[in-house]
Automatic annotation (TrEMBL):
Lineage: superkingdom: Eukaryota
Biased composition (Pro residues): 335-357
Membrane-topology descriptor: Lipid-anchor; GPI-anchor
A single Gene Ontology CC term: plasma membrane
Amino acid composition bias (Low complexity), ranges on this chain: 358-368
Gene3D superfamilies per record: FAS1 domain
Claim: Membrane is one of the keywords in the record: yes
Organism of origin: Liquidambar formosana
Record's compositionally biased regions (Polar residues): 387-398
Official protein name in the record: FAS1 domain-containing protein
Homology family: Belongs to the fasciclin-like AGP family.
Function description: May be a cell surface adhesion protein.
Length: 425
């Protein structure tokens, strides 16, 4: 096969350089702006920051300290989290795009919609281009008003993440009045049974581990519950052969101390301790992420997180496809020692008659969710001009700082290699 034409190689360079490896950290982006310190703090407390950092092509509707204080007043963290999910749009909007909306109004998906707990249009936000250079935001629920208005652009990494300020929180009907379940109200076994994890629920009751789970909820708890099918899968060990202490360790291995939603798991790089952890490196888990799929690795087997049963601060419950088998209980047995070589009985030395020395031969060489139909009305008047109020930091001047060095080094290496190929040709 002939060498590539230099022009083709140049095109290859351009296509490699076009690969975007931009990453972002929302808390770091907001850190230089004290006006959003309270908003930034709640993104961290609710772990929404991890969810934002694990996604691309989104818009964060930031609230200044006064607006955030009004939203958070007298509400538990789980309610605040759902309200803030409405302020994370799963599409990229900068000031220019806000005024290029088809027909001047649109409904866009938010993080709240991804929870599966937003009936009807509650997980969508209405964006409407108004008269006089204004852009309005409001819940997409029928009858909702555009109570929030675009103020300015705060910062952006083009086409990856845009942070813009709105002057008031977006409130979906009922989102602030929904009762937040307290730790004592959560019936873990009922949730597990409803999710198809009856075997696991039965085991944590009979072993007494349910009491360990319940006592840990107040400070945060995350459960990985194997489905009933997981216990019937080929190769699943016979748990009846475990001692009671071993069974308790196995069940505690399926839980983490602390509230760890899926977004946090996606950004986890280091091994994570479990309730069974009793020493450094003991009974820990590793997390691998491929797109939206999260896999837990034990050192013996791996299991995919299948569904989210509950995500309500301070408790997360997930179902997993397989039983998590810790190496401390199910580590591979050592390889058998090699059998000794057979000892052959000595045989008499043959009588050698004198002969010419043999000629030695040279040794032989060894081979080597579409948006729902809109039920809102388009305001009178044609879309207005783009907003002019922008922050001095609204551009992506510092976007290069958000690009990870290894990815950049990789691009430079590939480019140098390809340029060398062009030169040699």
């Amino acid at each position: 096969m002939g060498a590539l034409h230099p022009l083709h190689l140049l095109c290859l360079i351009l296509s490699v350089l076009a690969i975007t490896t931009t990453a972002h950290n929302i808390t770091a982006m907001l850190a230089p702006f004290p006006d959003y310190s309270l908003f930034n703090s709640y993104l961290s407390q609710t772990k929404l920051a991890d969810e934002i950092n694990s996604r691309q092509t989104l818009t964060v509707l930031a609230l200044n300290n006064a607006a955030m204080s009004a939203l958070a007043a007298k509400h538990p963290l789980s309610v605040i989290k759902n309200a803030l999910r409405l302020h994370v749009l799963l599409d990229y909007y900068d000031p220019q795009k806000l005024h290029q909306i088809s027909k001047g109004t649109t409904l866009t998906t938010t993080l709240y919609q991804t929870t599966g707990n937003a009936p009807g249009n509650l997980g969508f936000v209405n964006i409407t281009d108004l008269k006089g250079g204004k852009v309005g935001f409001g819940s997409a629920a029928p009858g909702s008003k555009l109570d929030s208005t675009y103020t300015k652009s705060v910062k952006s990494i083009p086409y990856n993440i845009s942070v813009i300020e709105i002057d008031a929180p977006i409130i979906a009907p009922g989102i602030l009045t929904a009762p937040a379940p307290s730790a004592s109200d959560v019936n873990i076994t009922a949730l597990l049974e409803k999710a198809g994890c009856k075997t696991f629920a039965s085991l944590i009751i009979s072993s007494g581990v349910i009491k360990v789970y319940q006592s840990a909820i107040e400070k945060g708890l995350t459960l990985f519950a194997p489905s009933d099918m997981a216990f019937k899968a080929p190769g699943t060990p016979d748990l009846s052969k475990l001692t009671n202490a071993e069974l308790v360790s196995l069940l505690q291995y399926h839980a983490l101390t602390g509230y760890t939603p899926i977004g946090t798991l996606k950004t986890t790089k280091d091994p994570i301790s479990t309730l069974a952890t009793n020493g450094a490196g003991k009974y820990d888990l590793r997390v691998e992420t491929a797109g939206d799929e999260v896999t837990l690795k034990t050192g013996v087997d791996s299991s995919r997180i299948a569904t989210t049963v509950l995500d309500s601060t301070p408790l997360c419950i997930f179902t997993v496809d397989s039983l998590l088998l810790p190496a401390e209980l199910f580590g591979k047995s050592p390889s058998p020692a090699p059998a000794p070589e057979p000892v052959s009985s000595p045989s008499p030395a043959p009588v050698v008659s004198p002969s010419p020395a043999p000629i030695s031969e040279a040794p032989a060489s060894v081979a080597s969710p579409p948006a729902p139909p809109m039920e809102t009305q388009t305001p009178e008047g044609a879309p207005s001009d783009a907003p002019t109020a922008t922050s001095e930091n609204a551009t992506s001047d510092n976007a290069a700082a958000d690009v990870k060095a290894p990815a950049f080094a990789f691009l430079v290496t590939v480019s140098a290699t390809v340029l060398g190929s062009i030169w040699l040709s």
